[in-house]
Amino acid sequence: MLLGSLTIFSLLTWTLAASVSTLYQFSDKGTFIDNLVIRQNGHILLTRIDVPQVWSVDPDTHVGTLVHDFSYDNSTITSCFGIAEVHPGSDIFAVITGSFDSSSFSSIPGSFEVWKLDVSGDETEALPLVSIPEAKALSAVIKFGDLLLIADSPDGAIWRVNLRTNEYAKAIVHESMLPAPNAPPMGINGIRVRNGFLYYASTTRQEFRRVAISSNGEATGPFEIIASGIALDNFDLDVDGTAYMATNAENSITKISLDGKVETVAGGKSSRELPGPTSCVLKGKMLYVGTNGGLTEPVDGVFTEQGKVAIIKLP
């Protein structure tokens, strides 16, 4: 099912004027930020793929600090992926961990877990929430009612975890969430929920879709295409369902309207402004962006830099 004038707009892009600045940049190349979330106090928590760590960035002081290193809990954990607050204002977060090789972009099935990271007190506490050994490669996670919904990219599935019981199961399995045929194992990636719809980015299929879901996280309607033929990674949604999308190897942030119109907000294929943007989170007119510095694909084949958190002031 198509939305509005998708068949026209998905082939066209517009460019918006937005200012970009660096909030915090790591000192070493090879830093790969995967996901961001904003705490109640305005600090940004970020997960890293290159090491199994969660960091905090203070937007006022521009200082980044290590919050937790999961290798101290389990030496087999190599990477952190999705992060989501389990209750609004609680400062308790669900963090996805697993064993992953960012150089070959391959994961070890059976290694993926959900942890509870509590940063509400003076001391950070990390406790295992649930292991999902059947998962192939978990990535983004969101809170939805009493559930966590988690994307499994190679498996083309959404897992649900009941936060009251810790029981887990597959909630949705659909062809559109699978990797494209003869492509790397990157299917469903970023996910969000707004107004009863699950929005998702299918990376190698280059499709941005949504589907109505029940309170149990199961699909109840058609899998609608919003836009296609574009680069997709993690994203955030405005209140009206407009998406701000990180494009990773395209080195840009795009805005995707529900009618399928695609606009470049910042950066570009040959731009060194935002090399390798992997995720973004919206707060008012401020868009916070995490990058991998061009590790996935160097800008113009040559330029990489340290991963960073950037701020885009939207017009």
Structure overview:
InterPro entries: 6-blade_b-propeller_TolB-like (IPR011042), Hetero-Diels-Alderase-like (IPR052998). It comes from Aspergillus ruber (strain CBS 135680). This is SMP-30/Gluconolactonase/LRE-like region domain-containing protein. Keywords: Signal. This protein has one helix and 27 strands. The protein is mostly beta strands and 315 residues long. It has a single domain, classed as TolB, C-terminal domain (Neuraminidase, 6 Propeller). The strands form seven sheets. Strands 1-24-23-22-21 form a five-stranded mixed beta sheet, with no helix packed on it. Strand 23 and strand 24 form a beta hairpin. The longest helix has 4 residues. The N terminus is likely disordered.
Mean pLDDT equals: 93
Please, how many helices? 1
Taken in chain order, the helices and strands follow as HEEEEEEEEEEEEEEEEEEEEEEEEEEE
The H-level CATH homologous superfamily, spelled out, is TolB, C-terminal domain
Q: Can you tell me the CATH topology?
A: Neuraminidase
Q: State the shape.
A: globular
CATH architecture assignment: 6 Propeller
Number of domains: 1
Report the biggest beta sheet as strand number plus sense, adding barrel if it closes: 5 strands, mixed
**Major β-sheet strand ordering:** 1-24-23-22-21
